[in-house]
Design goal:
With 216 residues, the protein is of the alpha+beta class. The protein has helices at 9-18, 28-40, 76-79, 101-104, 140-200; strands spanning 45-51, 55-62, 68-70, 86-88, 111-118, 124-132. The chain has a single domain, classed as Beta-Lactamase (2-Layer Sandwich), CATH 3.30.450.
Length: 216
């Protein structure tokens, strides 16, 4: 069963794309958080996913080799519609997922728990999720840890975004400074050329007026 589309989907995608993180290279800070989630939740698979228009893309992953899957079979597409943890104890017994190819074939998902990555403005970009190949549950401390780690992932995404915005602002400032210096140089050159033309021009003779002779 395909996941419902969030009511704010158009704006959610716009915000996601503003983070400029899709299809970027792995980064240690995200890999560390994914590894920590896998260890704390005692799960063989953990991922940081971002749910794009037609796919879910993995910014970081443990226990899988693929970089993305179709959104229409994504567990995380369901999770971004939730305000808190989205947990599927046994996917084979859940009518939403029992015929899902990720359940019926590799990686043969049985258990899923995903914490939505929610921006300060309330948009769910994706999840920090853990997956197992056997039916199970999370202990209360593991649930709390997954929520905390998801917030840390979101904090890192925010820092990454602000860093890029700051870099662009510096580039714009530097470009404005270069344009200003160029304009000043062009103005100075124009003034020099004007002075040179004036110095080479012959003096302008003004017509002299003759005083009429007085009749005797």
């Amino acid at each position: 069963m395909a996941a419902p589309i969030p009511a704010n989907e158009k704006q959610r995608l716009h915000v996601l794309w503003q983070y400029e993180v899709l299809d970027t290279v792995p980064e240690e800070v995200f890999d560390d958080l994914t590894e920590l989630a896998a260890r704390i939740c005692e799960a063989p698979i953990a991922m940081i996913t971002l749910v794009d228009e037609d796919r879910q893309w993995f910014k970081s992953k443990v226990g899988v080799t693929v970089n993305e899957t179709s959104r229409d079979i994504s567990f995380c597409a369901h999770a971004i519609c939730e305000a808190d943890l989205f947990i599927v104890p046994d996917a084979t017994k859940d009518e939403r997922f029992s015929h899902n190819p990720l359940v019926t074939s590799e990686p043969k998902i049985r258990f899923y728990a995903g914490a939505p990555l929610i921006t300060p403005d309330g948009y769910a970009l994706g999840t920090l999720c853990v997956i197992d190949k056997v039916p199970r549950e999370l202990r209360p401390d593991q649930k709390s840890a997954l929520r905390v780690l998801a917030r840390h992932v979101m904090t890192q995404l925010e820092l990454r975004r602000h860093s890029h915005e700051l870099a662009r602002a510096h580039q714009q400032r530097d470009q404005i400074q270069k344009d200003l210096e160029k304009a000043r140089a062009e103005l100075a050159q124009a003034r020099r050329e004007l002075r040179q033309r004036k110095s080479k021009s012959p003096p302008v003779r003004r017509p002299t007026s003759r005083t009429p002779r007085k009749r005797r």
